[in-house]
TrEMBL record:
<dbReference type="InterPro" id="IPR036390">
    <property type="entry name" value="WH_DNA-bd_sf"/>
</dbReference>
<dbReference type="InterPro" id="IPR036388">
    <property type="entry name" value="WH-like_DNA-bd_sf"/>
</dbReference>
<dbReference type="InterPro" id="IPR052509">
    <property type="entry name" value="Metal_resp_DNA-bind_regulator"/>
</dbReference>
<protein>
    <submittedName>
        <fullName>PadR family transcriptional regulator</fullName>
    </submittedName>
</protein>
<dbReference type="InterPro" id="IPR005149">
    <property type="entry name" value="Tscrpt_reg_PadR_N"/>
</dbReference>
<dbReference type="Pfam" id="PF03551">
    <property type="entry name" value="PadR"/>
</dbReference>
Length: 108
């Protein structure tokens, strides 16, 4: 797969990936970024603007927790709207991925 296609696929799935990570529980920015880097090689720099947008859209709520090993950490958790968005994105992804898989299977 060419790099440009892979980059576009990652960009398209980034919201879903972040929502999936947060569906497992509260997490702070660096932890979310590290999880995405390990799972899908997503760049760390793309996470923070996305988290601000998700917060502005009401998909995530935040809280600040003091850290004994550095600056305070901002923890993110899904709101009810965020949980609903995650379920909708997940359904859409599975439907789309299934359709693409079917097309690929039907090729000679």
């Amino acid at each position: 797969m060419t790099d440009s296609i892979l980059v576009q696929l990652r960009k398209g799935a980034l919201d879903l990936c972040v929502l999936a990570v947060l569906s497992r529980g509260e997490s702070y920015g660096y932890e979310i970024a590290s999880t995405l880097v390990a799972a899908v090689n997503m760049g760390e720099g793309t996470i923070y603007p996305l988290m601000r947008r998700m917060q502005n859209d009401g998909l995530v709520a935040t809280r600040i927790v003091e850290s004994s090993s550095g600056p305070p950490r901002k923890y993110y958790r899904l709101t009810l709207l965020g949980q609903q968005a995650f379920e909708a994105h997940r359904r859409d992804w599975r439907s789309f991925a299934g359709a693409v898989d079917k097309l690929l299977e039907d090729l000679p």
